[in-house]
Amino acid sequence: MTIVILYACSKGNGELIGVQGREEWYQPDPFGMLFIPMGSYNMGPSDQDVPYALTAQTRTVSVQAFYIDQTEISNNEYRQFVYHVRDSIFRKILADDNEELLITTNEFEEEYDEPILDWYAKVRWNEPEVREALEPMYYNPAERYMNRREVDTRKLNYTYYWIDFRSAAKRSSRDALNGPEGARHAFSLDRSKFIMRDVINVYPDTLAWIHDFTYSFNEPMTQNYFWHPAYDDYPVVGVSWKQATAFSIWRTRLLHAFLSELGSPPVNDFRLPTESEWEYAARGGLDLSPYPWGGPYIRNARGCFLGNFKPMRGNYIDDGGFHTVKINSYNPNDFGLYCMAGNVAEWTSNAFDESAYNFAHDLNPDYLYDAKDEEPEVLKRKVIRGGSWKDIGYYLQTGTRTYEYQDTAKSYIGFRCVMTYLGRAKDDNL
Questions:
Q1: What topology is assigned to 1-71+266-430 in CATH?
Q2: CA nearest neighbour of 155 among 164, 173, 143, 166
Q3: Domain segments of the chain: what residues?
Q4: What is the pLDDT of residues 66-104, one digit of tens each?
Q5: Taking the model in full, what pTM does it have?
Q6: N or C end of the chain: which has fewer CB within 10 A?
Q7: What pLDDT score does 17 carry?
């Protein structure tokens, strides 16, 4: 009998040469995103601001290279997320009676505990059997307006997962301090304890246009803003911080699934920007300038306003807007980003604390609440940046920070995503 020994890699003549045969890889630019190089800047107010000195001090911070959406997420882009969730639920219902809608190959069954949906399988949506099976997903007759058969948006729930790396790191560090036994335990942590799960309804709160204002006629915006084609290129609003986070995770899964089909390695996750990343991008490389276009004025040389906000004492149309405007309105900043001031304020990933600048790190600052005994309402405060169509000019400044509660949805808050660049800088790949 002959014994054949297979080597996983070359011997390399006894030298350390690394794993051979690995293909060169270059970071693909995500569609709709712009590259922001790493840099340091003075985060906070660009001029003396005594009344707000306790919430936005000035300090020097550094951020690594990342990508950021050139525009705010539009209604049509967010609608892709809503439709994906809707179609997933539809197909899961139909798959209970039709296994052709599932991927059930032997190779698949070895990797996963249960079959997944086959998105390439065709569904005849107008067949009576299909319509009958999906009827529970529509409003019941008593709730239908003008007898319209519409999807019950309350049932558009998305289940998403993420890994709580910070909790895992804290647990590992704590165990490692308990001597050799603790160190061994730290390296054998049960990973399942740190895989987090949540379920969120993905449909925007269209009633935000009404409950955000008193004695103001905004019913047409509630009825049409999210779904009508006229508003496809306007920023999505009525989205809570948790919904924006879920969108980022879904967007990551969408891209990673495509890269997997191509045999390409995955890239970093989409996510909400940290407060420091958002401000760095908004400044466009113009340090110490109060606005994304420079400063210190909010009009150009011809007297035209440079963003969509609330000019003067309520003359909303003086800047060319009214409510929101299209996501590519006005001139971009020097990084090429649109509406980093005005239009809609934007969610960031960070929790809000008045003194966060005093204790957050100066390397990729990223303050998140971790205290379990604080007031629940305090824990829900998330930083929003950029000001909106209903805010006065002060909130358009790059250094101004304020907050909103993470489980609320407003008609003046939207978001955009970022992705950390894989590597130090693009020059490294040349």
A1: paralog of FGE (formylglycine-generating enzyme) (3.90.1580)
A2: 143
A3: 1-71+266-430
A4: 999 999 999 999 999 999 999 999 888 888 776 666 665
A5: 0.89
A6: N
A7: 86
